[in-house]
Write a structure and sequence with these properties.
The complex is a heterodimer of chains A (351) and B (594). Chain A contains twelve helices and 13 strands. Chain A is 30% helix and 19% strand. Chain A has one domain (23-321): Thiamin diphosphate (ThDP)-binding fold, Pyr/PP domains (Rossmann fold), CATH 3.40.50. Among the domains of chain B are: 101-197 and 351-415, 3-Layer(bba) Sandwich (FAD/NAD(P)-binding domain), CATH 3.50.50; 203-346, 3-Layer(bba) Sandwich (FAD/NAD(P)-binding domain), CATH 3.50.50; 491-583, Alpha-Beta Plaits (2-Layer Sandwich). Helices cover 29% and strands 19% of the residues of chain B. In chain B, the strands form seven sheets. Chain B has a five-stranded parallel β-sheet, with helices on one face. The chains are: A alpha/beta (351), B alpha/beta (594). At the A-B interface, helix 1 and helix 8 of A face helix 20 and helix 22 of B.
């Protein structure tokens, strides 16, 4: 953590994106997290992704719950809409906001405690309902704010900083998300922005529930030998199935790829996901295969990362409910409250 | 790229752009911090050791440090380094007790010819060591061209008197009003070494039609300035044209404006941008209502029976050949005639050594300049050394002081019978500034203030009195605010890869995106794929050894604010902020035993 605000001085050649902003314009307040926290890297990745996608900050709504992870929306996109909900309740508040105004880009930020313990029901239902959102879980396996007790995602057999061994079975949020119907599922590592940034970009441009589990070492309580969520452990056991290049429709594709090594997925808005295969047998459109692969590798002690599953033709909650296209705040009173005659007619039709 | 060698002094010295650019390598950020802390005397002494004339240079230095200042690359204007130096001189206490005491006389006698900045620097450095130094000058007081050519409204005599006295009071013998007419005679007096610091005393003339006929109304700039300085000239005609585009031309036109010149113009051959005068001197001339007309080559002095009526100019444009050499091509437009009553010719200065006999064994090159070893400044006559404008051509005061130091080192080695190449490297030190988790012993909050303008006296007043100093200098509050603009480039970001866990915290926090962790590569290619491409090739890349993931840390020094945020965010202390202090070795310095 730092006390001083970041100096406003910019390099003269600081690039601006298509909507005229510099990368610094996507930053928020100075972080109060511990120095070296993985969460700060994720914040930086969100900043970079939004800058690259030419997103206007005020077109984003960022929502979070409680915890170290849920503090982070204060540290990026300072000019966006924000809502800090009660513990674990980010998904339902976000669902409500998304139903009221589908024009905004919804970014939910949560942690392993907020999502896998107190908020696990909320997480599950947001996924199965198909809320159009990007759900980032900043997963460090411990309760950092309360001094490092194991969280529900801590691996069985891993050791706490004080030497206590965890005997409980971990919840794998990626496996849950796959099972519950998320249409874009990925796992990444806060220490690997090259992998993480394109995954966030793809998620922000995906229509439907996009879930990214980001392993994010807690430098203070979970970065020791015996931890399975430390920088060293994750780097050693990282098993990436693919590398994603996110390509906007306007971009030229410059790199060439050897035949068979690339999978090209066009999302509904025309953006392209170029998946460079690292595991040639892996098929990211096969949900059951993805679940199997995940289980197999996990049993070997490996951490599977990359874009694990994507359904580019997914349908979201708005389609299911057949909601009105316009945001509610633009509809006007007469439309939102058509009066007693309309109510009488509706009641009569149901009699 | 190979890992950056940060062990010696070269790498970190270059990061301190101002100190690197200063010919005397003054530790600029150190004295600026002392000014911010109100320790003016300490700031003055740091300057005094490096550049000898802080009060003088704080007013009239050519400031090579300011164009180099990193602040100018992250904001529009550099720190007002030069004027801060003046603050140290203006606000200091009596510093005489801090001056070194001369060692016991060692019996060696040194003659310095000329009492300008180079000679006085030699005198100071050697007098302290116990040498008997004698300074000869044809003027009545020390200072050389600082006294004779720089107008008093820029540099009052009191400042020159004070700073020259610090040197003379070290026991330097002075022989004023004495013209050294023969080097042979001088050498016959049995000096152990002779230092020549006679400057570039001859102003270049403009030998065009009408020069002879109208000679009474045409003056050589530096001679005219000297006459003004010593009170021999106190008036000039109403309409004056100054030929030339250097700082002497600026001094001429501004002096003319104060001596009755109402319609004063500067007319220069080159383009406005390429003029040799410092940008701020041009600004000041324009501020005083003096137009600068460029791209005009003087062709003829027109006169009416010896009475000058004006100057005829040919209008040209600049063309550059493949090698970037400029030639001025007439545009074909009709020549322009500018009326005037007097002309000041300030188109350059030349060296002249009529007093050095050609058969002494002291060689001169084809430009009539002494053949010197550029490092030691020794001539082909081993006993004779040169410095300042007399050595390698006209430059400026700070270069003269720097050369004076080098010559003093050479003379000391020579008198002790040692090899002149046996020079010591600079002394330097690198110390962590960490005081606590978020505390540093320097103010790491980056000021967002803009450059302060030095308050000046009203033009109506200053244009009437040529001796009235125009600038008033910063007051303590302005000085502090300006000093805070300094980015503390000497507080270095030192990286130790062994401690790094590659968490990216430094990359994410860096306000100017200097830091990247990436695969190593060749410099050109690496510069292109950093988080922010490093396009300024004059600025180094700091590259670490390979880290655990086999990547390297690459830092582009170009726009680092030295705010220390990388070090504050580093969980393992892999980054540390360490103050780099460097001072050039002085004459008489002994190698430290380690």
């Amino acid at each position: 953590m730092t006390y001083l605000a970041k100096p406003k001085l910019l390099r003269a050649d600081a690039p601006r994106n298509a909507v005229g902003y510099t990368r610094r314009d996507y930053e928020g307040a100075i972080s109060t997290l511990c120095a070296g926290c993985g969460h700060d890297s994720i914040s930086a990745a969100v900043v970079q992704a939004c800058f690259d996608l030419d997103i206007e900050p005020h077109r984003v709504a960022k929502l979070s719950g409680i915890g170290c992870s849920s503090k982070t929306p204060d540290y990026f996109l300072g000019a966006s809409h924000g809502f800090n909900t009660t513990h674990g309740r980010m998904p339902s508040v976000l669902t409500g906001a998304a139903l009221a105004n589908r024009d905004l880009i919804y970014l939910g930020v949560s942690g392993d405690g907020d999502s896998a313990s107190i908020g696990i029901a909320q997480f599950a239902h947001a996924m199965r309902r198909g809320v159009n959102m990007t759900y980032i879980c900043e997963n460090n396996g411990v309760y950092g704010l309360t001094k490092g007790q194991f969280s529900a995602t801590a691996d069985k057999g891993s050791k706490s900083k004080r030497g206590v061994v965890n005997n409980d079975t971990p919840i794998d949020l990626v496996a849950l998300a796959l099972q519950l119907g998320a249409s874009y599922v990925a796992r990444s590592f806060s220490g690997d922005k090259e992998q993480l940034i394109p995954l966030i970009k793809g998620a922000l441009r995906h229509r439907g529930p996009a879930f990214i589990d980001v392993i994010s070492p807690c430098v203070t309580f979970n970065n020791h030998a015996g931890s399975t969520k430390s920088y060293d452990y994750v780097r050693e056991h990282n098993d990436a199935v693919n590398r994603l290049d996110f390509i906007l429709p306007r971009d030229k594709i410059e790199a060439s790829y050897p035949a068979g090594s690339l999978r090209r997925i066009v999302q509904h808005d025309g953006s392209i996901l170029h998946l460079r295969k690292l595991d040639t047998d892996y098929d990211p459109s096969d949900r059951v295969g993805a679940m199997n692969h995940l289980q197999e590798r996990q049993a070997l002690g490996e951490i599977v990362t990359g874009l694990l599953y994507v359904d580019s033709g997914a349908v979201d909650l708005h389609r299911h409910l057949n909601t009105v296209e316009k945001p509610l705040n633009q509809l006007g009173d007469a439309y939102l409250c058509p009066g007693s005659k309309a109510l009488d007619a509706l009641n009569a039709s149901l009699r | 790229m190979n890992p950056t060698k940060i062990g010696g002094h070269e790498y970190f010295h270059k990061v301190v752009d101002c100190q690197w650019a200063c010919p005397a390598h003054t530790p600029v950020p150190e004295y600026i911090r002392l000014i911010a802390a109100g320790r003016y005397s300490d700031a003055y002494m740091i300057n005094w050791r490096s550049n000898v004339f802080p009060g003088i240079l704080g007013r009239v230095c050519d400031r090579p440090c300011e164009p180099a200042c990193r602040r100018g690359r992250v904001e529009s204007e550099p720190v007002a380094i030069c004027r801060l130096k003046r603050v140290a001189a203006d606000l200091k206490d009596d510093i005489r007790d801090s001056l070194p005491r001369p060692a016991r006389r060692n019996g060696k006698r040194i003659a310095c010819v000329g009492a300008g900045p180079a000679s006085l620097t030699v005198a100071r450095d050697l007098a302290v060591l116990g040498y008997q130094v004698t300074v000869f000058d044809n003027g009545a007081a020390p200072g050389g061209m600082m006294r004779s050519q720089i107008p008093k409204f820029r540099l009052p005599d009191e400042v020159i008197d004070e700073e020259c006295a610090y040197i003379v009071d070290l026991g330097v013998e002075t022989r004023y009003n004495q013209w050294v007419g023969s080097l042979r005679d001088l050498l016959a007096e049995g000096w152990d070494a002779v230092f020549v610091g006679t400057g570039a005393p001859r102003g270049r003339d403009a030998p065009i039609t009408g020069r002879q006929e109208a000679a009474k109304h045409i003056h050589i700039g530096i001679d005219w300035l000297a006459n003004v300085a010593f009170g021999h000239t106190s008036r000039i005609s109403r309409r004056v044209i100054v030929l030339g585009g250097g700082n002497t031309a600026m001094d001429c036109c501004r002096s003319a404006r104060r001596l009755g010149g109402e319609d004063v113009k500067v007319i220069v051959r080159s383009g406005f941008e390429e003029m040799k005068a410092s940008p701020w001197e041009k600004e000041e001339a324009i501020h005083e209502g003096i137009p600068i007309l460029n791209m005009r080559v003087p062709k003829e002095f027109r006169h009416d029976n010896g009475k000058l009526t004006g100057v005829l100019f040919e209008i040209v444009r600049a063309e550059y050949d493949a090698k970037g050499r400029r030639s001025l091509i007439p545009t074909g437009e009709p020549d322009e005639f500018h009326e005037c009553d007097e002309v000041l010719v300030a188109i350059g200065q030349e060296n002249a050594f009529p007093w050095i006999e050609k058969d002494l064994g002291l060689e001169f090159d084809k430009w009539d300049m002494p053949v010197l070893n550029e490092k030691t400044l020794q001539s082909t006559l081993p006993k004779v050394f040169f410095g300042g404008d007399a050595a390698l051509g006209p430059k400026n005061i700070i270069t003269a002081a720097a050369q004076g130091h080098e010559a003093a080192i050479s003379i000391d080695l020579f008198c002790r019978g040692k090899k002149l190449d046996d020079r010591l490297p600079p002394e330097f030190n690198l110390v962590s500034q960490k005081m606590g988790i978020h505390e540093w012993s320097y103010d790491n909050q980056v000021s967002e203030e803009e450059r302060k303008k030095v308050p000046v006296k009203a033009l109506e007043k200053t244009l009437k009195d040529i001796k009235l100093e125009l600038e008033m200098g910063f007051d303590p509050l302005m000085a502090c605010s300006e000093a805070e603009r300094c980015l503390n480039c000497d507080v270095q970001t030192v990286f130790s890869g062994k401690l790094c866990i590659e968490c990216d915290a430094c990359v994410d926090i860096c306000p100017t995106e200097c830091i990247t962790f990436t695969a190593n590569g060749e410099e050109d290619e690496l510069r292109g794929r950093l988080k922010a491409p490093a396009r300024n090739r004059d600025q180094a890349l700091y590259v670490s050894d390979a880290l655990k993931t086999s990547r390297v840390m690459v830092k582009d020094e170009n726009v680092c604010l030295h705010c220390g945020m990388c070090a504050e965010r580093c969980p393992t202390g892999a980054w540390d902020m360490q103050k780099f202090f460097l001072q050039c070795a002085e004459a008489g310095a002994e190698a430290k035993r380690t």
